[in-house]
Write a structure and sequence with these properties.
The complex is a heterodimer of chains A (235) and B (99). Chain A has 235 residues and is mainly alpha-helical. Chain A has helices at residues 2-24, 28-48, 52-77, 89-111, 132-142, 144-165, 168-197, 205-234. Chain A contains 8 helices and no strands. In chain A, helix 2 (28-48) runs antiparallel to helix 3 and helix 5 (132-142) crosses helix 6. Chain A starts with a helix and ends with a helix. Chain B is 77% helix and 0% strand. The chains are: A mainly alpha (235), B mainly alpha (99). The interface between A and B is large, with 87 and 71 residues.
């Protein structure tokens, strides 16, 4: 029990520090790293609440995959340190006030609710509570529609991300090239197909076709070899 | 540990995330603060699942994780599109839709 309390306060301090770090740090890259720490601390809290599968999913999916996506985008866009401009002056004062009001309201709404179980540590649960088996049973038996809708949502989001993040002008140019190539390929097609259609009367066509890649691969193989010998000579 | 501790912690994290959404100007950081708010909701859901002793809240939290992943993908796609079109990565200057 004492161990649980110590672990809770450590993880809660870590989660709060990570959350404050996300908001306060001015470099977005450090904000992402603070959020990773926050998510790991939250996973510990999930374990304290007997949600083993969700703790694992939090670490693997959130702190792993989603944060990697964030880091890639931050590296791509560039860590822009936002200026403390005067345009955000009034909001910069009002924002924390609104947030404090929200904190008071949410705390009253949750802790002041009539839930008797909130004051206790929760009822005794069976050993399999929160295991992948229990979650899978619930997903497949009671929440099947939510599960399917979530999968459709993921599909729609993936398609939307591809549509949003594509390079539009670049795609038009690539499309033009593709039309040009498509127009050229049928010219090659009949020439390549004619000897085959004419029968095996010209068997030399295929070995030539096989020889060309071999000739292309030849210099490519030779160059690393010479480079290797050159490097060895330098050594 | 009492469930109330977890719920109060979740309220704190939610409010910190809301403060970040209200004060920060970089859309990337605004998305991160939205993640904070969603995670606070997750923590409250799992705490209440523990309070009731059944796993429904945990399934709900799992669905929230899916929604958060979708939101991240769309948001980051928007930011990359803004960057490609050489728009300023600043929530205050992106005001063309303001009436």
């Amino acid at each position: 029990m004492l161990f649980e309390q110590i672990l809770f306060f450590l993880a809660a301090a870590g989660a709060l520090a990570g959350a404050v770090g996300v908001v306060v740090l001015r470099n977005p890259f450090f904000s992402v790293l603070a959020l990773v720490g926050h998510l790991l601390a939250l996973a510990v809290l999930f374990l304290l609440l007997r949600a083993e599968f969700l703790a694992a999913a939090q670490v693997v999916v959130y702190a792993g995959a989603v944060m990697v996506l964030y880091v890639f985008v931050v590296a791509y866009v560039g860590g822009i340190e936002e200026p403390l401009g005067p345009s955000a002056g009034s909001l910069r004062v009002l924002g924390p006030v609104f947030a404090a009001a929200l904190l008071v309201e949410v705390a009253i709404a949750t802790v002041g609710s009539g839930l008797r179980a909130v004051d206790s540590a929760g009822p005794d649960v069976t050993a399999g509570f929160g295991s992948p088996q229990a979650i899978g049973n619930l997903l497949m038996l009671r929440f099947l529609i939510a599960f399917e809708v979530a999968s459709y949502l993921l599909l729609v989001a993936a398609v939307a991300a591809v549509v949003l993040a594509r390079r539009r002008r670049g795609l038009e140019e690539a499309g033009g090239e593709r039309v040009y190539q498509v127009g050229r390929r049928p010219e090659r097609g009949p020439q390549a197909a004619d000897p085959a259609a004419a029968g095996t009367g010209s068997p030399g066509a295929e070995p030539v076709g096989e020889r060309e890649p071999a000739d292309e691969a030849g210099p490519a193989e030779r160059e690393p070899a010479t480079a290797g010998t050159g490097a060895s000579r330098e050594d | 540990m009492g469930i109330a501790w977890f719920v109060v912690l979740s309220a704190f994290i939610f409010s910190i995330g809301a403060a970040g959404v209200l004060t920060r100007r970089n859309p990337l950081v605004i998305l991160l603060c939205l993640e904070l708010m969603l995670n606070a909701g997750n923590l409250a859901l799992i705490a209440f699942a523990r309070a009731y002793g059944n796993g429904d809240g945990q399934v709900f939290a799992l669905v929230v994780m899916v929604v958060a992943a979708c939101e991240v993908v769309i948001g980051l796609g928007l930011i990359v599109a803004m960057y490609r079109n050489k728009l300023p990565i600043d929530a205050d200057q992106m005001s063309e839709l303001r009436g």
